[in-house]
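User: I'm preparing a small set of examples for a lab meeting where we compare how different chains pack in three dimensions. I only have the primary sequence for this one, and I'd like the structure in token form so I can line it up with the others. Please keep the answer compact; I'll paste it straight into my notes.
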Amino acid sequence: MTATTSPAAVPETLSPLTDVTRDEASLRRFLHGLPGVDQVGVEQRAAGLATRSIKKEAKRWAIDTAVSMVDLTTLEGADTRGKVRGLAAKAMRPDPERQDCPRVAAVCVYPDLVETAVEALAGSGVRVASVATGFPAGRTSREVKLADTRLAVEAGADEVDMVIDRGAFLEGRYLEVFDEIRAIKAACGSAHLKVILETGELATYDNVRRASWLALLAGGDFIKTSTGKVSPAATLPVTHVMLQAVHDWHERTGELRGVKPAGGIRTTKDAIKYLVAVHEVAGEQWLTPELFRFGASSLLNDLLLQRRTQVDGHYSGPDYVTVD
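Assistant: Understood. Below is the structure token output for the 324-residue chain.
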């Protein structure tokens, strides 16, 4: 499928969709029956949309929308409770001198720091997200992955970001990956599940499309490009493929699922390119934190600086915001 192929082109390999996961052969037949991605087409469309310019009034809206979509993240071995509290304070009031600045969507931490984040964000409306399942490599047993997930949820996480077993996927053990996502989804309870594909390791756009559909079939509430620990991380063409997948999923099932690019998105200019892609590929309905997120903490700093420029009419240096 090219980036402009209509949703009707998604093959009715087996119907209903639940039938395609009944065994390995059925799932393989469905995933490999998806139309191939036109590499030249998707890259050209992504490049074309990236050149779109927006007027001043729309830019202010785009900046505020992007701020509201940020998952403010700290995922380092040296993370402390104090750092998480500081991040939570920034999440609730990104620009303390500008009361009209929207809060971010979520704060994302490791499972052992979820309780600290929950306490710091209580009553704010900012969600707590936790990575799990042996993040970032995912090279551990399913029992450990499930325990990791339950630890996060029991500590109060609203969202869980899991990593798929890329080795199993690349070897074509699709049902194994599907079953693991389903098991993690069940362990999440009421928490939303974001499924990290680590697209930089999937090698082809066809694999990105297959992994996207596999995650959607298994119940992922979001599909996420990457952990931010592997290069390349998020790219516009890969995000186009994933946006097309959730759009086609909606056309096929009526269900709305989200997309989260993560890693390498650092400037307001970058963020606006992604928002244009969301609007043009998935649709205006996805321009909400409920269906689109940025996994990019450093992005918030530039958004705040550019927001001040829009509001004040002149550029404010980094001394005017908390730069992480």
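A couple of notes for your slides: The chain has twelve helices and seven strands. Residues 1-15 have pLDDT under 50 and may be disordered.

User: Perfect, thanks.
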